[in-house]
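User: If only I could read backbone structure tokens as easily as an amino acid sequence. Underneath my words sits a plain record pairing an amino acid chain with its backbone structure tokens. This is the protein in question:
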Amino acid sequence: MSHHFEWSSSGPLIGPQSGSGIAGIKDPSVVFYNGAYHVFASTAQESGYSLVYITFADWADAQSSTFHYLDQTPIGSGYRAAPEIFYFEPQKLWYLVYQNGNAAYSTNTDITDPSGWTDPKTFYPSEPALIQQDAGTNAWVDMWLICDPTTCHLFSSDDNGQLFRSSTSLSDFPAGMGAPVVALQDSQYALFEASNVYSVGNDTYLLIVEAIGSDGNRYFRSWTSDALDGIWTGLAETEANPFARSTNVVFEGEAWTQSISHGEMVRTQVDQTLRISPCKLQYLYQGVDPTATGDYNTLPWELGLLTQTNSAC
């Protein structure tokens, strides 16, 4: 994989619908499946977070597509945020993993049927002791699930410089999730939240984690490993050589955001291995008008698309 990344960015493609009362659309997860994009995201407003699903064949049609608010489904109302979508091939089920104060999930046989999601279940009976101890006053956030041929690994963050990982066997999943361990640590803002982990082939895994830069803007750092429970080695992981930051993104038109924040690779292989091609990556991210002020939950986050412009392939 490249040790230096360059990107172009679209303008905002998905934002709150007018009249919805929602301040921001955030934290997207996306797969391209059966000729359509399927985007799951957080809806943010002063009163809290929920989830939304939209599907469309072309990015130009995303904002005009139907927004399916998942609090109207068995997923229910209350705190639901930061979704991840994948197809768990051994059970022939779609999984939506999200946070609800715990690490939660719902399942569905049909990704296109919002009413088909099950009631939330959690991977743990309560917040694990290590996370309680290490997060301090910060939150346990941003669950991310990926499986290798034998084991499923759950990554999560504490907004306090630590990336956690826990695991269960592929055959036991979703039951049997073990106690978390610290997979990577750094200072609080250098390893903040919003981790993604992917298989990029040749027994190589790519990790990206959101950081808060010296200028206060969000960006991504990256690492690789030869195993999901292995040692993570820096790839493009500095402010000067980031994975994705406003400094290595060229905007089509006006630079509408200075933060490149919580998002997801566009995946065309949708199963639990989260295999992506390392060629010409596309990344759906959240950005925000740099002049916006106010409480974090009321900021007008929107979704834009990065496309890698210096792929070696």
Notes: The chain has one domain: 7-308. The two ends are 10 Å apart (CA to CA). The domain at 7-308 is CATH 2.115.10.20 (Tachylectin-2; Chain A).
